[in-house]
Amino acid sequence: MNPILSAFNIRKEFGGLTAVNDVTLDVYEGRIQSLIGPNGAGKTTIFNLITGFSPLTSGKIRFFGKRIEGKSPYKLVSMGIARTFQNVRLFENMTVLENVMLGRHARSGCTMLGSAFRFPWVLKEERSIRENAMAELRFVGLENRAGEQAGSLPFGEQRTLEIARALATEPKLILLDEPAAGLNTHETQKIADLIQQIREHRGITVFLVEHDMSLVMDISDHIMVLNYGEKIAEGTPREIQNDPLVIGAYLGEEL
Description:
Layout: E1 3-14, E2 17-28, E3 32-36, H1 43-50, E4 58-63, E5 66-67, H2 73-79, E6 81-83, H3 96-104, H4 112-117, H5 120-140, H6 155-167, E7 173-177, H7 185-202, E8 205-209, H8 213-219, E9 222-227, E10 230-235, H9 237-241, H10 244-249
Helix pairs in contact: 3-5, 3-6, 5-6
């Protein structure tokens, strides 16, 4: 089985600080794969390198065999890579539906000229975008919130909305950066269920950064562990739970 995403000896330096130190990783199609490690280990930096929000210092990244380092985030979305963020990034004054429609516009063929003159095909496409956005809201359970302002939603639903917007781009790979951060136990379980549905019912590969170890161990097929910007272990949840280097990185706490 070939990986859909591969990073080869990726490195990121900020001045004199090495945030990611020659990390090599593979993400395989159909998996829920997690990236864990203590605070400051370099997890979000790796997500930023993969999704074009930060340039590599050195190394290579391939998506379905094509080199993608140096490409813009928008270009990567069009290639099938979507993500969410550690800190929720929504257009708070827009409606829930409008936020998801923005994600769907990444698949739009409409030009500025078409939008200005409102050609019939443009109107048809707008209806399609709205219908598809509503379908995503139904999938994540937010269809009844469609007309509400995004900023008025409870925090847990804002996280869910951000996932819906990412799904609207029709990704082949979705990167979720701490989707359970700040959520209570009930909300965390709902996010875990949603992540599994994304893989099982939508066929989308999931790459997850998360600090909630119960969630990670329950839903992950494969886990990679970072510490001080370096990969120290990878394997199944059971293998990671019993790895002495991983236990040491977490200050001896039980995973």
